[in-house]
Amino acid sequence: MTSKELTELMQESPVACHKALVKEYGRYVYAIVYNKLRSCGTNEDIEECVSDVFAALFMKCKFDISSENDLKYLISTIAKRKAIDSFRSLCAQANHITDTDDDDMHELVSDFSVDEHVDRSELRRVLLNKIEELGEPDSTILIQKFYYNRNSKEIAESVSMTAMAVRARCSRAMNKLRAKLVEVGITR
């Protein structure tokens, strides 16, 4: 959902806009908050922080929806900041951390980042949707080539084409896919 779509939905119905944001980004926000608060917060603390994130987002949406970009970056920034604030507050209440030094903070760092994992999963979902939009046989060719690591000859047998035709279709399909991804803001 882009800021422009959000603005249009907000003008039609603020309640519908809020529901759409929670539906689309709820799990993403929860993953970010959970990753930050899992060591010191309860489920209620995590849920309260998620609610605070959406409250802050809704207030931001009312007053500043000027960019045409994807909201994911704004949402992740708000979620991370709210989760860090909650972490500090919870730790201060429980007297877990009285003086934060590098040794204490090092214990909180994990090799596995939930929010990065969610970002990659979201990217995969968008990529597969855009590949499916290409239609047959382009979607089959790309999936077999890049997901199943098959060569042109193997793909040609499964789609009843020549290997040369598969390579040409693959090249054109990749160009179409790049254009579709640029439309949704993915440029890497």
UniProtKB/TrEMBL annotation:
Keywords tagged on the record: DNA-binding, Sigma factor, Transcription, Transcription regulation
Gene3D superfamilies in alphabetical order: 1.10.1740.10, Winged helix-like DNA-binding domain superfamily/Winged helix DNA-binding domain
Residue ranges of every copy of the RNA polymerase sigma-70 region domain listed in the record: 21-89, 132-179
Domain of life: Bacteria
GO biological process: DNA-templated transcription initiation
Key word Electron transport present: no
InterPro entries: RNA_pol_sigma-70-like, RNA_pol_sigma-70_dom, RNA_pol_sigma70_r2, RNA_pol_sigma70_r4, RNA_pol_sigma_r2, RNA_pol_sigma_r3/r4-like, WH-like_DNA-bd_sf
One Pfam family matching this protein: Sigma70_r2
PANTHER family associated with the record: RNA POLYMERASE ECF-TYPE SIGMA FACTO, RNA POLYMERASE SIGMA FACTOR HI_1459-RELATED
Family, similarity comment: Belongs to the sigma-70 factor family. ECF subfamily.
Protein name: RNA polymerase sigma-70 region 2 domain-containing protein
Annotated organism of origin: Ruminococcus flavefaciens 007c
Lineage: Bacteria, Bacillati, Bacillota, Clostridia, Eubacteriales
